[in-house]
Amino acid sequence: MQFGIFTIGDVTTDPTNGTTPTEHERIQAMTDYALKAEEVGLDVFATGEHHNPPFVPGSPTTHLGYIAAKTKNLQLTTSTTLITTNDPVKIAEDFSFLQHLAGGRVDLMMGRGNTGPVYPWFGKDIRKGIPLAVENYHLLRKLWREDVVNWEGEFRTPLRGFTLAPRPMDDTPPFVWHGSIRSPEIAEQAAYYGDGFFHNNIFWNFEHTAQMVNLYRRRFEHYGHGAANQATVGLGGQVFMGSSEAEAKKQFRPYFDNAPVYGHGPSLEEFTKMTPLTVGTPEQVIERTLTFADWVGDYQRQLFLVDHAGLPRDVVLEQIEILGKEVVPVLRKEFEARRPADVPSDPPTHASLVAEGPNSFHHLVEPAKARMANQEVRS
Predict the structure, then answer these.
(1) Residue 75: φ, ψ to 5°
(2) How far apart are CA 74 and CA 206, in angstroms?
(3) Where do transmembrane segments lie in this chain (predicted)?
(4) What tens digit of pLDDT does each residue of 71-114 get?
(5) Mean pLDDT on 246-273
(6) Is the pTM of this model over 0.85?
(7) What does 192-231 look like in DSSP terms, one character per residue?
(8) Choosing a second label site near 174 at 20 to 30 A (CA), which of 13, 128, 348, 364?
């Protein structure tokens, strides 16, 4: 099972001392967190994509390319890549290039984005978010898998005789996750293509998370990709740890209370009860995280948000150290002890996809059609 951290790259004033990092300082800190994640044995670093203040991750592949040059083992991904406002051609080019730079240590998460004003900045209509996500992703798959693309759709100028350059590394497109917290259409999309489904459940109750993941699992099986429990699932979460629960809450409370996203709403205690946010000792984080599989089934990737709401750089680095040294080793052991033999431990990687060979379903634009046709022949 893969464990890692993700950032949304917010520039937030520290409520305890009134200091605000510069954009440069925030970008440098995010880089430091990625390097720390590799140092302490975490598997994954993910960065969001935003094009409006107070966020800085406007160019995720630039950042991940820099991190790739400074790491050897870390899997690099996004949380998320905006499939709606980005041009699929540019996404295809950027991530193919990043694959080569990182030696294949790349996957990506597709998302619609929920910041309304950003859509018209890129000539898009947020009311068409779902159709944009569906059409753009289908084109992206063609760009990575067909040598010459001829295509016409609703939201982009047609392509005539287009060939992507560079091609994906080893002619193997990166594995894709679809991130959604509320849209069943996106869970359906992930299931149709046999891709991963990531539920970033930091703001949602467990019942809602289970409902979304179980929808994806059922449809994954429907399209012939495997049994429902074999579908590729990832979860988000947020933790803050201290020497005692009381100490952790005392230190984290001012950041929670003033967080730009969930501050000034439910209390810290209410929020930790309703959602996966865990504030306490490393042992409490371990105990709480292990219950996630009781809701969604055995899954393959767990990412933690650790740097939101103005937390100081040194505090975040300490949190990553605790995750890597005290929490994740126990979680690995316990999750694998309960995992059935037929359920994959890890999501697909570049190496595993290359090993499947050029005739694998991963190389098809619409693998569901081929799988369901095979089922009809056998029946």
Answers:
(1) -80, 130
(2) 29
(3) none
(4) 999 999 999 999 999 999 999 999 999 999 999 999 999 998 77
(5) 91
(6) yes
(7) HHT-EEEE-GGGS-HHHHHHHHHHHHHHHHHTTSS-GGGS
(8) 128
